[in-house]
Write a structure and sequence with these properties.
elongated
Length: 237
């Protein structure tokens, strides 16, 4: 009748009662008869149990429970029959489509949840106010029809019909304009060619004048040199 105290039979022991959650440390009070009966129920590592046929307590196969230290020891790692270490396989993460997976979309775009809520609220409001939306749509369609009629009437008002004589006159004026443009282009090209020929002639004339001046100047210099030689001879005498 004490709260928190449980009574269990030694023949039907329960691990959840002895160690709740797999954690040891619960305070247990054994009776002498129950403690002595444990050997008959479970036996030992050398003697079989009398209550369970062929049952014997398991015994430890190793003296050192540090498996990692045993595997990494020099005796194990240096054995000839030991297979070489295998490289860890490459793992590839599966790419998920954020347009179909809401969790991935929420991780990429935290505002996606709010956008979905807003869209759902808008759809719900549109569903509730269907008559108002239809009225606005019909008003817009009516305004478009009126605008189309206005545009059509404006096109017919601004359109002018040309007679055959007007059309012939327009064709003749266009031909005259094209002819004038062609003549202006030909005159411009002719003027450019004439200017280019004149420039070449001027260059040729200036070149000839320079050549003639150089030829006329050369004998004078020779005569001067001869006079200088005569003066030198007179001085020597």
């Amino acid at each position: 009748n004490i709260s928190g105290v449980e009574v269990a039979s030694v023949d039907t022991l329960n691990l959840l009662q002895l160690a709740p959650g797999g954690h040891l440390g619960r305070f247990i009070i054994w009776s002498e008869a129950a403690f002595n009966k444990l050997s008959d129920i479970w036996g030992s590592t050398k003697r079989e149990s009398t209550a369970k046929k062929g049952y014997k307590l398991p015994y430890t196969c190793i003296t050192n429970s540090d498996i990692g230290r045993i595997i990494n020891s020099a005796e194990i790692q240096g054995h000839k029959s030991l297979n070489p270490a295998k490289a860890a396989p490459r793992t590839h993460l599966k790419k998920r489509n954020p347009l179909r997976n809401k969790a991935v979309m929420d991780s990429l775009n935290p505002y996606a949840v709010e956008m979905r809520k807003t869209e759902q609220m808008r759809q719900q409001a549109a569903k509730n106010d269907r008559k108002g939306i239809l009225a606005k749509r019909r008003a817009a369609q009516k305004a478009n029809r009126i605008q189309r009629k206005v545009n059509y009437a404006k096109i017919h008002t601004d359109y002018t019909v040309l007679t055959k004589s007007d059309l012939d006159q327009k064709i003749a004026s266009d031909a005259a304009e094209r002819k004038r443009l062609i003549e202006e282009e030909a005159a411009r090209k002719l003027a450019e060619e004439e200017a280019e020929r004149k420039m070449l002639a001027d260059k040729e004339a200036s070149k000839k004048a320079k050549t003639a001046a150089a030829e006329s100047k050369a004998p004078v210099e020779e005569d001067d040199e001869d006079d200088d030689d005569d003066d030198d001879d007179d001085d020597d005498e």
